[in-house]
């Protein structure tokens, strides 16, 4: 018995139910949450694909040309919307891509309908339908593969879409060169295999989208828990946790580290004179300017208010002073973008030491805080080192 001798009507029913149940599950999962744009697009794609497969199951109830034209057009739109949902989810669907991809969809659908209206032989229609599917899938699959730091899940989804493209190219080839019937209701091994793959892709696409959305949410939650909301640098808790790791590492290596505690001079006056909105802009731009001057592996965090800390791994006293002075001068010479008349300065307390088993972040903070206090007492806008800590 041929295991691929599967009734195509059964496959259609399974495809329709798969799309409908996926939509129901996603709606149930997100009913108490604000749906992302990508989720709404994905739900719409499930609706279009369900309608298309239902229409394809009623070929005798609809005039042939209308049946072929409308059902396939809806199916193309549904497939494209699913792919657009993935692109939107991974933030790869900007205005330029949206415009070009939408034009591509319209061209593909118009081409297929022109071929259908002019009563082109069925094998040619199959070739064009298969080719259009490949065209629509190729760019999203590429973007999922080439996305900045793609996750394993993204690569797996892109791989399945790539396999689908190969399958449809093979179907197009078979429609052109083989004597096998490659129409929808054909049960030969090639056609049945293609539709079984469609079913698997439907499963992978549906489950993959849900998991990818969950993965994105997890990343955002970790980011929200780790970063200061206003300045987008480490919050106090995360800075201390990361600093502990560096202290432990450099204690084992017996190498120096430097710690800088920074305070924005007279920040309260900025808030009082210009308002808290300007004050927030100052904090954002300050964090951006400082971060741009640091190495990738330097730690930079906000302790609270206008107080910030920097840990410089493997940095000796001389180099840390150079870094601190460079940061001080950068801020001194950088006016606030929204109002260039607003200028401000910073004071920095610094400490450099070779950590041991007794060294901790709280110790570094207290020592540098004493140095910062001295900087304030000496007139602000300066770097002061706690000498006895070396």
TrEMBL record:
Keywords: Membrane, Nucleotidyltransferase, Transferase, Transmembrane, Transmembrane helix
UniProt superkingdom: Bacteria
Domain GGDEF per the UniProt entry, residue ranges: 255-388
Keyword field contains Nucleotide-binding: no
Gene of this entry: ycdT_1
EC number from the UniProt entry: 2.7.7.65
Enzyme class name: transferase
Natural source organism: Oxobacter pfennigii
Record's GO cellular component terms: plasma membrane
Matching Pfam families: GGDEF (PF00990)
Spans traversing the lipid bilayer: 6-27, 39-58, 64-89, 101-120, 126-145, 157-176, 196-213
Nucleotidyltransferase is among the record's keywords: yes
Name used for this protein in its record: Putative diguanylate cyclase YcdT
BP-aspect Gene Ontology terms: cell adhesion involved in single-species biofilm formation; negative regulation of bacterial-type flagellum-dependent cell motility
Gene3D superfamilies (alphabetical): 3.30.70.270
GO-annotated molecular function: diguanylate cyclase activity
InterPro entries: Diguanylate_Cyclase (IPR050469), GGDEF_dom (IPR000160), Nucleotide_cyclase (IPR029787), Rev_trsase/Diguanyl_cyclase (IPR043128)
């Amino acid at each position: 018995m041929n295991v691929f001798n599967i009734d195509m009507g059964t496959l259609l029913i399974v495809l329709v139910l798969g799309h409908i149940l996926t939509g129901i599950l996603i709606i149930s999962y997100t009913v108490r949450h604000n749906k992302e744009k990508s989720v709404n697009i994905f739900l719409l794609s499930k609706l279009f694909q369900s309608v298309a497969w239902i229409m394809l199951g009623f070929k005798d109830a609809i005039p042939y040309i209308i049946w072929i034209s409308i059902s396939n057009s809806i199916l193309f739109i549904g497939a494209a919307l699913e792919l657009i949902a993935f692109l939107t989810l991974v933030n790869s669907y900007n205005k330029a891509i949206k415009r070009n991809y939408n034009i591509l969809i319209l061209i593909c659908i118009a081409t297929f309908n022109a071929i259908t209206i002019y009563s082109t032989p069925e094998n040619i229609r199959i070739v064009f339908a298969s080719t259009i599917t490949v065209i629509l899938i190729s760019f999203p699959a590429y973007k999922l593969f080439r996305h900045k730091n793609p996750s394993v899940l993204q690569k797996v989804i892109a791989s399945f879409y790539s396999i689908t493209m190969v399958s449809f190219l093979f179907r197009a080839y078979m429609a052109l060169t083989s004597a096998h019937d490659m129409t929808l209701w054909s049960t030969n091994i090639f056609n049945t295999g293609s539709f079984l793959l469609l079913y698997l892709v439907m499963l992978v696409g549906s489950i993959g989208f849900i998991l990818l959305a969950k993965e994105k949410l997890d990343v955002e939650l970790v980011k929200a828990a780790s970063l200061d909301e206003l300045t987008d640098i480490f919050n106090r808790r995360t800075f201390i946790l990361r600093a502990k790791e560096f202290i432990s590492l450099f204690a084992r290596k017996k190498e120096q580290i430097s710690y800088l505690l920074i305070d924005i001079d007279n920040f309260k006056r900025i808030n009082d004179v210009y308002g808290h909105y300007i004050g927030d802009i100052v904090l954002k731009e300050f964090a951006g300017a400082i971060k741009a001057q640091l190495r990738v592996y330097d730690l930079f965090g906000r302790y609270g208010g206008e107080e910030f800390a920097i840990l410089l791994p493997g940095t000796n006293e001389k180099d840390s002073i150079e870094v601190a002075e460079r940061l001080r001068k950068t801020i001194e010479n950088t006016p606030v973008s929204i109002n260039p008349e607003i200028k401000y300065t910073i004071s920095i307390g610094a400490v450099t030491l070779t950590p041991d088993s007794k060294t901790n972040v709280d110790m570094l903070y207290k020592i540098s805080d004493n140095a910062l206090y001295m900087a304030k007492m000496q007139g602000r806008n300066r770097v002061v080192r706690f000498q006895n800590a070396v």
